[in-house]
Amino acid sequence: MSFLGRLPTATIQFGSVLLVARTSGSLAAAGLTGGALAIGQVVCGPLVGRLADRHGQRTVVLACSLANALAITALVAGALAGLGTPWLALLGACAGASVPLIGPLARARLIALARRDKAPEPVIGAALSLESTLDEISFVLGPALVGLAAVVSHPAHALLTAALLVSLCGTAFALHPTAMATRPAAEGRAVVSAREGRARIQGRAARGGLRGLLARAKAQGRMARAQADGRMARAQADGRTARAQADGRMASAMAHGRTARAKVQGRAPRTEAPGRMPRAVHSLRAALALQGAMFGACQAGITALTERLGRPEQAGLVYAAMGVMSAVAGLAMAAVPARVGLTARWRAATGAAFVLSLPLLWTGSLVGLYAAVTVLGVAYAPHLITVFGLTERVVPPGRLAEAMAVATSALVGGQALAVAVTGRLAETYGPTAAFGAASLAAALACALALTAPAGSYASKSHARVPVNTRP
Hints:
- With 471 residues, the protein is an all-alpha fold.
- It folds into three domains: 1-183, Growth Hormone, Chain: A, CATH 1.20.1250; 187-267; 276-464, MFS general substrate transporter like domains (Growth Hormone, Chain: A, Up-down Bundle).
- The chain is 81% helix and 0% strand.
- The longest helix is centred in the middle third of the chain and has 42 residues, at 185-226.
């Protein structure tokens, strides 16, 4: 369900470019529409994640799924009606801004369920590997389906199918019982504050009552001592008895107050304020942006090289080869021993991406391109999985969905910007220039991973999402 719900996200950008290019005959209009769609997703993606943290995934995903389906349908209708480029770009921006981000929110939901059940770290890693693999498959399958629809019938059919999928599967994802696994942070804080407030009131009331009892006991003792000498011994005994009873009541009430506070601390979910994002998370976002730039530059280089070789139809298959190998590597990440820390995996993945991208600079044949790109796919998903795992580790409680959404936006933004820039480089200087930009992005990502202090990620507590105790 979540896989089908995230499939339209991988479909609409490429599909919008093909649709506008066919209906308007202008590649410039198609590029502007696709670019506006990517910008809308990058800008509004973090907002969707923040709203999900504050108001719960169910409401946000349901609203975004329906809005996204309407925006995609409006874009198709506008393109078929021959609207001008500014209107198509505006509709594309609306379609990108309303993407429900099912992939990042599914990651947050899985982590919340695992934390609630106190799952070990290998299980968390396996869950992130599965989610990243599903993303890989969707981003490979989505463009392939759009291309097939464009050849067989019309790109509009692919986009309308995407609108139907996001409305049905997005709604099902929003209404699924697991949506209650993530609890709005404000709601959790309100419950804790109310319970703690009641405990403090009860404690103060109990202490006030005990002080009154002590005062009365002391007064009785003074009156007893003022009486006749013959009754003094009995009065002193009565006073000692009263004080002993008062002390016993005080100890009992204090124990009751401590028990009440312990119950509040033990039963109430300890939900901290969202707080500010730590500095360490910015390096992770930069790493994802560089990974997106590397992939976007590879796309531009692959397109340019296949066109130079006279086989432009092979570009989609080359992308698919990279994606399939990346998905296989992502599934294999679950078998990595737990003793290999996330920081070490991050550095190894970026180093492998840089080294494996270098053969692209000397690739001039279709067979060599297939081999180089397929091998490069080995480093793509492991880096993605590791950075998402580090993000889950360092972000503060109550902001996990927002952090995942920002991470995804960084990846998409880096890819969209790199496609726009390196596409022009490839047209002017050939595919080697685009592949060189991909290697440069991989080198920067590797340098970032090597210079990042390991303690910033190893010592942080996990971002335990506020969860319901009820199933």
